Amino acid sequence: MIQTQNITFSYAEKVNFVFPDIRTENGEALLITGGSGKGKTTLLHLLGGLLRPKSGSIKVGETEIGSLSEKQLDRFRGKNIGLVLQQSHFVEALSVLENVVLASWLATGKEAEEKAKSLLKQLDLEDQMYKLASQLSIGQQQRVSIARALINEPKLLLADEPTSSLDDENALKVADLLSDLSKEYNASLIIVTHDQRLKDRFPHQISL
Amino acid sequence: MITKLAWKNIWYKPLNTLLSVILLTASVAIISLLILLQEQFEKQFSSNIDGVDLVIGAKGSPLQLILSSVYQVDAPTGNISYDEAKIWMKHPFVKTAIPLAFGDNYRGFKIVGTTPDYLEKYTAKVETGKIFSRNFEVVIGSEIAKKLNIKEGDKFFGSHGDAEEGEVHEEFAYVVSGIASPTGKVIDNLILSNIQSVWAMHDSHDHEAHSENPEHGEEGHIHEDGEEGHQAHAQNPQHGEEGHVHEEGEEHHHEEISEEGKEITAVLIKFKNKMGFVLWPRLIAQNTDMQAASPAVEINRLFSLFGIGLQALQYLAYGIMLISGISIFIALYNTLKERKYEFALMRVSGASRLQLLGLVLFESLLLCITGFILGTIVGRVGLWLISSTTEQEYKMAFDPFAFAVEKEGVLFIVTIFVGVIAALIPAIKAYRLNISKTLANA
Question: Which of B10, B334, B349, B437 is the mutation pick for testing A, counting most A CBs within 10 A?
């Protein structure tokens, strides 16, 4: 569950954002839309603890993330927040499987290899496990990011333009996966996008 | 996991890594080779001058005198009169005086006429057999015994001079009476006899050989017009090649040889009274045809001479290490641009800033440690190669498995330091990476 109240943010004196309050229960999905420059990505980064708000409160589960130190925040983020980005980045030297395992190790200190394998299998990536991420197609890469975001069973799954570089077929597939898996893992899903194709897919929407 | 990650990361760019490792290996190899060479060289040189305060020999280069009489590596400066030398050897200042007479060699190993004190000076014992007591009995150094597989009771012929190809003295065979214990000093590569053997060999040799080979007057070898004729003994039948064991020859000289008018090559002096150390060099130079040289002084002079060369090489090697440090820095810095997404992503996945800092440092250290280990190995292979040639030519071996713990420790710390410095800026950049900005601009 995630809940925000009166959050504001400013990059410089001139650019000020005031964001509407958000509340998403476990297993629910929320779509945040809006044009360029409206602060979609900024909001997502605030929710993910990558940025700190100028004012207001953000609660993930029972934790007020504004009160965490930098180091605590890193830990908290690893354990409780999964992030899927528009463009997938990977540790290039590692295989797909190792990338997913790395995420579990960084967050928990344990290498959840079996879990990573089953998750990749579920995402139809069984044959790609031992390849380098750069050898995969964009759609496949996006699915690996989802696996990586879910490996630690986060309370909150954030997706930043997850479908904008994908074709229709892959875009819908990824949207379905995000929605199904977040339900399965009982995580709140928040997608930030300007992708029109997703607007029909997710009923809960906020426009910035 | 972090080790695996760092390891995979450095090999993901194999060319960059290879360049850095090769440069590091080269510099560490050169430096560790120089360290070992210098250390063992000095040790070998210093251990041989233990118990020698002064060397008396013919006039000439004092360094040459020391090298020839203490280290057996150079040609001798010439001969001195034994009568004259005895005056100094019996001086009350003197604790021990060991006379040395060079004459022949056997397969390139010098045969040195001396007294049993010589063995004592090197703390060598006669391990098997007994010390030479009669003429032409010899004690073999441990290395020679091992290399030439010589046993007690074996006989061989010496060749004249210090060249292996020298004329063979077929008149008398040397008999091995004993084998010395290993000492790691020059004595391991010497064949020792009493002084009389050298005189006897060359008395007869002179009478015989001068006719056929009138000009072999190199200095340093005993060429005497001995008073006693030994022609009779020179009529031995033709023997086989040198080293051949043969049965006759037992009837060698048993008569005493007069010391009168004989010459020796040098005397190693150890003083009771250290005044001699100060006074003798001038006294001897002024009053006799001889000179007295201090091994410690000459060897220091020698070290300072080639020390400059070693120093220059060492600077060169540290220069290469600096370049390898720069190469690591450039490699890390360049990949940082591509890797910042990777770092941001790791942060998102729960990695802390310190973990990223650690990762970058660790990658650099991994390169440095790999380079250090390879360099240490390559350096030792180099030393082994050098050792096999010096052993052949100078009878001086280096131990490639020895460790100069202190100096190599310093080298290791310097290597690590280079690694840390090279990684510092990239690591700090990784530490201070703004993940939000990095991911937003993706």
Answer: B349
